[in-house]
């Protein structure tokens, strides 16, 4: 159950919370209720008070025992028994229902107007009879004295169906091209219908003649309203014998007295959406009007907003349970909303426990989910020494900070600053003492924070007061007395830093003006010290303090800016000199470098040469390589250039080449020695 408050009017949403699937067993439902807090705390006032997809209309029977609702998909009607707090029956229909009416005190006689021009009658056991009207219908009303049904729709005629005779009667011919809504006064049975042209026609059922015509479209346009197109009538409702409320397609509600053609009051919803439902609450003289986005309750005498509700989904219909504070709505969602507003009236007798429940909630307000947690930023964690907890389960990331347990926060704060409570206690005692001192008769004292700024404001106020007295104007409010700027003269965090570079450059004349104020501050401090020592002596006066001021204030601000810049440069030079002295005092430590395998250390000049070569352009590097002989550029017969170059060999490659040369020489020597031996052997054989 959700609780909201607007204009100090509490609204309890009884249908809030998640709904359990129908196919779950009772055992699984109980297990889910134990695990999930939201499911356990929800209130299911009427079991399965919902539709499969969308609910379009909702009504209450005259005896108050049955609540009936129609919706889709598939088109159906569901009847709920309030005495059993459950569903009584469900009936599926052939087509969608535009609107319906309960003719009896209970559910035994119901009439449905469907979107395919059919009118269907249901009795207590189910479907009873079905007939069809010539044009598509949009609304109908039942005239109890004559048992006539009046149908309005996409036609200029109003069709009459007599239920006693069981036949259609002569229709009423109107001046309208189409009609949207209709209603019959419950006292004198005057029939009224709202047209697409923004007019309301009133007919007398006894004579079947028109007795009145109201141009509501013209009356709904005021100086504050902005409309697109001609407003048509989208809602109509009678209250008593003389009052009638009309809703337009552009979001205005007009309240009429039938004795006047001008509206008593025009209320704009400011959404530009058609008004879908109008209800009267007689106990508090309220009108409940609803469009697809909002339900508004406002006083019918003054037009002042009483309260309002904005559901999550679009609204199709609103029904006020009679003589109670319960309100129901059909929405573009499966679940139908139920609201309980104790200010409107008591709970219905079938759910009287709601009064006790709401009283307990008001006496014991529940703490929110975040009451047991503290929001901290990364800087706060570093100050508390808990930065190492980032990423653990003790901190929950949220926006630009984290949520942590309030108990852990208090423990860490006590360990980081054990004397925080003592400082807080001293600050509170000081504030109490200052509050008691403020009640005494005191002289004008300057605040402890931003004294020079306060003195400047006091001087400017004195000058302005003199000007306003001469011109006879009203005095402007003082910044020192304004509560919005009170903290600036109490909290030391708001102290103006006059030594900062920005302050000195943006305020070149501050140095001259501040000298005056500093002198005055010294004089005032001396006077306060004298008063504290000798309370009986009269107040001292500053004799020659102001007269001894120099006339240097008239100099241009350009010179002052130059002086300030020179001072800033001198300060920067001093800082640089200090840094250079510190650098000279610091001893340089030797650095060691590791040489890669296969390379020999020659000198640091090679690396310097390489860096210089890398900085040179490609053309310069090519010229150097041509001089060294590693690169040769020549012109070809085609006209292009041909470049031949030699790759530089590393130390390892040179060693390998030397080893290969030695190996080749050794093999050559071996081959020569072998051939020499063979030749000797051949000679010996010849001699033998």
Automatic annotation (TrEMBL):
It comes from the Eukaryota. Signal peptide: none annotated. Keywords: Coiled coil, Nucleus, Repeat, WD repeat. Residues 1-364 form the Nucleolar protein 10-like N-terminal domain. Residues 664-688 have a biased composition (Basic residues). One of its GO terms (biological process) is maturation of SSU-rRNA from tricistronic rRNA transcript (SSU-rRNA, 5.8S rRNA, LSU-rRNA). Belongs to the WD repeat NOL10/ENP2 family. This is Nucleolar protein 10. It comes from Oceanites oceanicus. The lineage of its organism: Eukaryota, Metazoa, Chordata, Craniata, Vertebrata.
